[in-house]
Amino acid sequence: xxxxxxxxxxxxxxxxxxxxxxxxxxxxxxxxxxxxxxxxxxxxxxxxxxxxxxxxxxxxxxxxxxxxxxxxxxxxxxxxxxxxxxxxxxxxxxxxxxxxxxxxxxxxxxxxxxxxxxxxxxxxxxxxxxxxxxxxxxxxxxxxxxxxxxxxxxxxxxxxxxxxxxxxxxxxxxxxxxxxxxxxxxxxxxxxxxxxxxxxxxxxxxxxxxxxxxxxxxxxxxxxxxxxxxxxxxx
Length: 235
Hints:
Elements: E1 2-7, E2 12-19, E3 22-29, H1 34-49, E4 58-64, H2 68-85, E5 89-93, H3 94-105, E6 111-117, E7 123-131, E8 134-137, E9 142-144, E10 157-160, H4 163-166, H5 169-174, E11 178-182, H6 189-201, H7 216-230
Parallel strand pairs: 1-4, 4-5, 6-10, 10-11
Antiparallel strand pairs: 1-2, 2-3, 6-7, 7-8, 7-9
Helix pairs in contact: 1-2, 3-6
């Protein structure tokens, strides 16, 4: 299986190419310069593997949550590549990819709570457990006040991502259930690959047109509108 993955959801711009058991990647800490880096990175890993885009089986990308601009860059690039090469796309949660990356570095971490700083006093977060080598979310990913972040019943969680540094009250409130806090963890394209393979094997890929970012705040806004619409009129 030959898969090209990319991620621009946070400050790192990264691309990874998986060819069977071989993995080639490029990663650069590059705030606000993703646009100029992402396509050269794609060209570099393809050239190193001696492949053309049309020889791939699928594309994958970090679908969010994350930086609004970064999500649009990743989605726009993967849509263009997928259309041009007629390839299916595996959208992968950037929170899950970050959890997968920490598991790659620390195989003891099989229960992970990932949280990004979502600004304006909120965090994007999700809880994950390891199933057959891939991180699987427990419940829905969410955007909420740091005070509303909840952990499943088990203890011994690894807390990763910028949200834990931005809102130390989460550590204070949940510290007794945490094994370790690692706020500098970020999502990378090479950690999208194992999750993308699971999506591809389950035949859950999407077309280029359907490869869109996931903005959790949109989901919250929609839910609020739906709830308000359901309220009986007072007139």
